[in-house]
Amino acid sequence: MQSFLEEHLDSDLHRLILKGSPFENISVQELAEQIQSRRKCRLKLPLWWKTPGVLYPPSLNIEQSSSEKAAEYKASLVSGHRMIDLTGGFGVDSFYFSKRFDHVVYLEIDRELQEIVKHNLMILNVDNVDCIPGDSIEFLKSSDEKFDWVYVDPSRRGNGQERVFRLEDCTPNLLENLDLIMSKAGSVLLKLAPFMDISQALNQLKNVKEVHVLAIDNEVKELLFLISEKGAETTTIKAVNLTQNRTDVVASEIGSMSEIDYGPVSSYLYEPNAALRKAGLYPTLSSQYKLDKIHPNSHLFTGKELVDFPGRVFRVIKQIKYSPKRVRKELGLKRANITTRNFQESVAEIRKRTGLKEGGEDYLFFTTDHKNISIVLQCTKASGIGS
Predict the structure, then answer these.
(1) Which of 129, 136, 181, 294 has the maximum number of C-beta atoms within 10 A of its C-beta?
(2) pLDDT tens digits for range 358-380
(3) Contacts made by residues 118-121, CB under 8 angstroms, sequence distance 24+
(4) What distance, in Å, lies between the first and last C-alpha atoms of the chain?
(5) Is the separation of the CB atoms in 377 and 367 below 8 Å?
(6) Which residues contact 347 (CB under 8 A, 6 or more apart)?
(7) Virtual CA dihedral for 33, 39, 41, 47, nearest 10 degrees?
(8) For the chain, what is the total number of helices (H) and then of strands (E)?
């Protein structure tokens, strides 16, 4: 079967299903599901993808799984003797936790998924993870075991698979069970989705020591909260962006951020990466890199000097007040890459009104400056700087 899956990894699934299964006890739908799930692992989970004998759950479980990069980063934040993963899923996080702990307990309420993970960990030569099926909260209630860390990645889907936005609507209910969870370990690592509100979570949770906003290739993937039973005098928020060539980390204590300087657009334009924008570390950027913000809501920075910045960096060629006529006449471009920040029109509307096609070497930022004037900035990328 594994040879068949390898041979048909890039085959047309519709045609494959029409041919039927060549195996007596395996349906063609099961084969198609294995191929579809494996395809999703090619870039997200390359270790799983290239390891012979690995089995795959439905593709939804793969979509909800951490990537290898994200799991490896999470594991770098914790260490100790014993850890418990309350929401095991496809087991990627538990796999990386096993490299940082002597013993890991993996819990998963879906029995079939738990069996798949147990098999895969054996294939991956992991022997310090206990895979246990069942409800994690019930397990904690009935167990006297103590752990150094508890990891929980609650489901953020309702009964109808709709997305939920409040901690109390997640499964398991964190607010209802946090005291129970904390009674089993000295520290908790909590993962939330990028769309969750950081400020609201901080108001509802107690003893949060650190918040990590984790982005991969400038896309926010996870919000990580490190909670300690000992509490913390201050909470540090870190914006982390992992790319192939570099790792950008900017940190600040919540409540101790400096004032932001505002000013006119200068020689260089700086666009913070997605992690920084989610974390809202604009005052830290302004003071640390000695840059002016061009408007409170534009989230773009400017400066006379070229600095190594955690985000995209551009050289400003020209600045004009916005009108479609000025864009056509004064810039004289037929195509450009367009970004809007704090602007009254969408990219599609701008292209329609100006006739600009997509692409080319020029980057146009449609935004609002420190005097509340709608402006257009013609830029080119600053070579070798930023991500």
Answers:
(1) 294
(2) 999 999 999 999 999 999 999 99
(3) 119/55, 120/48, 120/54, 120/55, 120/91, 121/91, 121/94, 121/95
(4) 42
(5) yes
(6) 338, 339, 340
(7) 110
(8) 15, 16
At residue 230 the predicted structure's pLDDT band, cuts being 50, 70 and 90, is confident
CATH superfamily name and code, 64-233 = Vaccinia Virus protein VP39 (3.40.50.150)
Minimal CA–CA distance to 363: which of 347, 384, 349, 374? 347
Q: Hey, what amino acid is at 346?
A: S
For residue 165, the model assigns a pLDDT of: 65
Q: Strand 101-108 and strand 80-85: pairing?
A: parallel
Strands 236-242 and 268-272: unpaired
| Nearest CA among 306, 317, 309 for reference residue 248 | 309
Spatial distance between the Cα atoms of 343 and 272, rounded to a whole number of angstroms: 17
The Cα 69–Cα 189 span in angstroms is 17
Amino acid letter for position 245: N
Q: Which fold has domain 2-62?
A: Arc Repressor Mutant, subunit A (1.10.10)
Taking only the tens place, the pLDDT of each residue in 272-312 is 999 999 999 999 999 999 999 999 999 999 999 999 999 99
